[in-house]
Amino acid sequence: MAIQIRKNQIANAQVDSSKLDLSSGTFNFASATIQVATPSADAQAANKGYVDSVAQGLDIKDSVKVATTANITLSGTQTIDGVGVIADERVLVKNQSTASENGLYLCKAGAWARTDDLATGADAAGAFVFVEQGSTQADAGFVCSSDKGAAVVGTNALAFTQFSGAGAVEAGNGLSRSGSTLSVNLDGSTLAVSGSGVKVADAGISNAQISNSAAIAVSKLASSSISLGGVSVSLGGSDNTPAFNLSDATAYPTSSLVGTITNAQLAGSISEDKLAGSISNAKLANSSVSLGGVSIALGATDATPAFDLQDATGYVTSALVGTITNAQLAGSIANAKLANSSVSLGGVSIALGATDATPAFDLADATNYPTSSLVGTITNAQLAGSIDQAKLAGSIPDSKLNDISSANKVLGSAVQLKASGSGIANDSGLKIDADGTSVQVNGSNKLEIKDSGVTAAKVNFAPSIDFFSPNGSATTFDLGATIPSGFEAMMLFRNGVALKQVASNPSGADEFALNRTGGAGGVSRVEFNGSAAPSSDDTLNAFYIA
Fold first, then answer.
1. Contact indicator for 477, 468 with CB cutoff of 8 Å
2. Beta bridge partners of 526
3. Kindly report the CA angle at 51 between 46 and 52, in degrees rounded to 5?
4. How confident is the model at residue 447 (pLDDT cuts 50, 70, 90)?
5. Cα torsion for 519, 525, 531, 536, to the nearest 10°?
6. Is 95 exposed, middle or buried (0-12, 13-18, 19+ CB in 10 A)?
7. Do 85 and 143 touch, CB atoms closer than 8 A?
8. pLDDT one-digit tens code per residue, 166-187
9. Which residues contact 244 (CB under 8 A, 6 or more apart)?
């Protein structure tokens, strides 16, 4: 139990120095002062000078309940840093958008008031305050770090800096703080903690985490190709077959195909066993149906209600049931309803409404038609095939004959030849009258020139030679004749040395070009490079066929 000394209970001089250990200081009862030395151990008392030296530069203020972490409205009770604040509780306001509003306040039901120890007009430089509560600011100490003279409350922008307490370190992006412990915030799906380090979680990388600009190299993959229906395609590669060529995928099952194939994707014919479902009409060789003489395209509709019998000329009457009244008849009556439904002309019977397919009435059908009934003339275009001699009476006058253009119309023996010299002879037919010396008919019945059949006398061209007189500037020289087409190869000598013939643009003194018709009057011309004109000392000789 401690001994409590009350006022006036110990008289002066009742406690002497033997009762006090003042080896390092003095005590004056009259002035109630104790003088102690500067402390050197934790349990020793501190004198005023020591305390003043420690607190020098700090203007210590009474502690606040909470400190703000963001801009607030300076009125009414509210929750700050997770703590509810009521009227007359002290608050450190340090995060206002308008920094001149920062400082120490008393919470009020209405407008807040600045505290008396840091009132409007005071210099806040060095003002120091502790925070008692708060989720993030508890036990922290803050000092006004604005310069003296520029820290006038209510006038200047005030800045408060934390310099003590568990919250001296703020948790930035990706971090969280609990007391004095910092932790990395991990999502748990893409990143995780392995021992004391951070790692990428198993299966933590998805497509969303892979940048399109940073593609994964194919070499990093265990398998870098895909096989579809027997076609192997490496990643990043392509099959040259447009729209994936099914002709390549010989083993691909048709049951695995989904979607539809359009007409544009079809090429050639498809066997029936490969078809399933509907086929567009355009892909069919026959895309219409003929019923009773009525042709209807697949997918189309005949506009006649209930099938118009006037269209169905071949419909059997036995298939009709019931009776047809006059009111139900419109237009023409079907031929089958007539007692006599055909007409016979010259032995040819034609059903009413029908057509004989032979153009211009086929006389081959009219076997009993009298020739005396025929009028007009028959043209070559109306004749087909040969006419039997038995069908002809007497000779056909020349006036009735025009050029005979079709084969087998006339026998060879019936053709009259011109006099000798026509080149055609009669030998149970027509033949070429070849001389057998220069021209003959070969074993394949083809006309040909006989070996050694062409002599010099039969050739209409001869070798020629021209001599030119260069002057040192001329680069073109006209020949004396025009070289025939097909004989453009020639020889040109310069000082007895043969020059090289090129098709165009000769380069150097040893090349020339031939312009077959480029000379005066259409004769052939030899051309040299513009910088290689033959000199007046050169001799030029040209050998060619003309």
1. yes
2. 477, 514
3. 145
4. confident
5. -100
6. middle
7. no
8. 555 667 788 876 655 677 888 8
9. 228, 231
Give the domain ranges of the chain.
Answer: 53-166, 337-387, 423-454, 461-545
Better pLDDT: 23 or 173 = 173
Q: Which amino acid is at 309?
A: L
- pTM for the whole structure: 0.29
Q: Measure the N-to-C terminal CA separation of the chain; round to a whole number of Å.
A: 152
Tokens 């609990």 label which residue?
178
Average pLDDT over residues 455-476: 84
Report yes or no: 94 and 162 within 8 Å, Cβ to Cβ: no
* pLDDT tens-digit readout, 46-105: 666 556 555 555 689 999 999 999 999 999 999 999 999 999 999 999 999 999 999 999
Task: Name the one residue in this structure whose structure tokens are 């070289």.
Answer: 483
Residue 225 to residue 396: CA distance in whole angstroms: 84
The three-point CA angle 113-118-122 to 5° equals 115
Does 513 score more than 70 pLDDT?
yes
d(CA 34, CA 28): 6
Identity (one letter) of the amino acid at 300? A
Q: Which tokens belong to 182?
A: 């910092």
What CA–CA distance (Å, rounded) separates 509 from 529?
7
**How far, rounded to the nearest angstrom, does the alpha carbon of residue 193 sit from its chain's CA centroid?**
43
The Cα 524–Cα 514 span in angstroms is 7
Place of tokens 């298939």: 319
User: Per the structure block, which two tokens stand in for 463?
Assistant: 């070798």
Distance CA(538)–CA(469), nearest Å, equals: 8
Q: 66 - beta bridge partners?
A: 91
| CA 93/CA 80 separation, integer angstroms | 10
Where are the alpha helices (H) located in 249-370, listed in sequence order?
Answer: none
Question: Which pLDDT score is estimated for 294?
Answer: 74
Beta strand pairing call for 66-67 and 90-93: parallel
Q: What are phi and psi of 294, to 5 degrees?
A: -100, 120
Length, in residues, of the chain: 546
Tokens of 258: 């989904």
Helix (H, G, I), strand (E, B) or coil at 200: strand
